């Protein structure tokens, strides 16, 4: 097989890349995440052989039947359970080998969010295989989940450890009430058009292994080549959202419903409709928020002091766009990744301010070729820290690891508005670092003879 080298024109091998890595899901959709344990190596390889037959590639399809698909990924322990040779295991990224639980404290998962408090089996050596099944409706989801069930039936060496159903409302909103799924980077060679015409597509190697990345180099890739090429690292996190606490905080800090909506928008960087503050700073614009050709087509450099969108707002922290280019100290493009968020649990009814004790939140999935400089950098340097925006003590107002003493600054004239006493609105319930191989790699794993 010819290896693509830096400088060549990029043509992604879409038939070998799992569909979940590059292509948008249907909207709305329903889905299910499953975690499996491999107790018998032969059974594990047979499972991979069966899954290979039902995993879809990343080539776009207009066939409605392909709106339902399965993505499969493995933890380090899972690859070990399959019998991947040690020299190959040693070639994976150190963060992947260690696992998320070992790095939880560094990621800001402390206190209630610490790995000791995670929902089992997250953070244990038992998690070997992660499956995601997504579909536009319940009937097609049931069909695709049934395909996955049949793949593991009559394999006594495979155990289902955990399952979490998820969904996206027709509004596309999360449990906090904000439209999500906006702002994905376009990937060179993927065939998916950009939603922000002011930014050129990311180099394919930022997401898929085996291609040059933004540095012009080939990212480190697991060996042998058949195992690493066209694969991607996948971060899975279950985040419990404290919606009642969030609503109570807005009510305590803002006198009217309009002021509460504005404060919420300042914390997130967007109005609940999805309209960005950068384009509509004074009032919500649902038409703008619903327009995929406009709701991500903006930059921040014209708002350096954050009067339209605070520099500390969640969306601006997670993707500062061009606002960090002025001194050349940070290349934001080195920290972009694919981000997928799916809701779980029932929505807290509108207007309810008391916690009903029901578990609800978001399953976040991130995909990229560099665990450390993508997910871990964004989490530790941009979401958990404020040095890069000149506010070292401030964390992300929505997802930061707060302890009740946090602050958030809203630039206003003539005097800035500083909010105090931010409680934790998000609690980490678990997470895993996984690797989603290409389809040829799945076949290689199934045919291992070690």
Commentary on this structure:
- The protein is of the alpha+beta class.
- It has a domain of 154 residues.
- It has 12 helices and 10 strands.
- The protein has a 4-stranded antiparallel beta sheet.
- A hairpin with a 6-residue loop joins strand 8 and strand 9.
- The radius of gyration is 22 Å and the shape is globular.
- The two termini are 23 Å apart.
- The N terminus is likely disordered.
- This is Dyp-type peroxidase family.
What does the secondary structure layout of this molecule look like, with pairings?
Layout: E1 29-38, H1 41-52, E2 69-74, H2 76-81, H3 86-89, H4 94-98, E3 129-135, H5 138-152, E4 158-168, H6 225-228, E5 232-241, H7 243-253, H8 257-268, H9 286-290, H10 314-318, E6 338-344, E7 361-368, H11 372-383, E8 406-410, E9 417-422, E10 426-436, H12 439-446
Antiparallel strand pairs: 1-3, 1-4, 2-3, 5-7, 5-10, 6-7, 8-9
The chain-level structural class is alpha+beta
Strand content: 15-25%
* SSE arrangement, N to C: EHEHHHEHEHEHHHHEEHEEEH
Poorly predicted runs: 1-8
Structural shape: globular
> What separation lies between the terminal Cα atoms?
23 Å
Helix content: 10-25%
Per DSSP E runs of 2 or more residues, the count of β-strands stands at: 10
Tell me the number of helical segments per DSSP (H or I, 4 or more residues long).
12
Radius of gyration from the CA trace? Answer: 22 Å
Strand order, biggest sheet? Answer: 2-3-1-4
